[in-house]
Design goal:
This protein has about 190 residues and is an all-alpha fold. Helices cover about 75% and strands about 0% of the residues. It contains eight helices and no strands. Helix 2 (about 35-80) packs across helix 3 (about 85-95) and helix 4 (about 100-125) packs across helix 7. The longest helix is centred in the N-terminal third of the chain and has 43 residues, at about 35-80. It is elongated.
Length: about 190
């Protein structure tokens, strides 16, 4: 199955996707949510571009992209792991880009979100508390794993990754490094 695509051949879609994600990234970073006033016009614009450029087949690809990019986020939203703005942003990107670019941008965005999460966690770690806890765990380990594990109590915090930022980074990755996107790396690996 051919998963190749070229975003440079769809400049209107690429421009709309960049405008949508950059706006969402700024608002998500500053305010912690992505408003409907950003996502709904982008979703509608994606379907309009698909209709103009591909007719009924274009609408089908836009809908397939919407499902491919939005489905994982609908599941995450149902589990309480992301907000509704994240779902609508990714669905809009899917409608704008179509099936294969939507899958690629979604994978790249998830990877970017993972990197953001790791750096965010590392920034919040209290290293002296971590060192003391690991040391105490090591000292108690000879007494048994259950006793040692009792010192490993998680600290509850409310912290989330601003996925609008991750989506923008994923899109830019796919735009500016097309030979190194998640799908291109998989398809190039299979070609060897």
């Amino acid at each position: 199955m051919d998963t190749t695509y070229d975003l440079t051949l769809m400049p209107a879609a690429a421009a709309l996707a960049v405008a949508c994600t950059m706006t969402a990234a700024v608002l998500d970073h500053r305010h912690g949510h992505i408003p409907n006033a950003v996502t709904y016009p982008c979703l509608l614009g994606g379907f309009m571009l698909a209709t103009i450029s591909g007719g009924l087949a274009g609408i089908g690809l836009a809908f397939a992209g919407l499902l491919a990019a939005g489905l994982i986020f609908i599941i995450a939203f149902a589990a309480g792991s992301c907000g509704g703005g994240d779902v609508k942003l990714m669905a809009a990107l899917g409608a704008i880009l179509g099936l294969w670019p939507a899958i690629d941008v979604t994978l790249a965005s998830l990877m970017a979100g993972g990197v953001i999460a790791v750096f965010s966690m590392a920034r919040r770690v209290q290293w002296s508390v971590l060192a003391r806890t690991v040391g105490l765990f090591a000292l108690l380990l000879p007494a048994g794993f259950r006793d040692a594990a009792s010192v490993l109590k998680p600290r509850e915090t409310q912290h989330t990754v601003r996925f609008g930022v991750a989506a923008a980074l994923g899109l830019l990755w796919c735009l500016f490094m097309p030979d190194f996107t998640p799908l291109s790396l998989v398809s190039n690996g299979n070609a060897r």
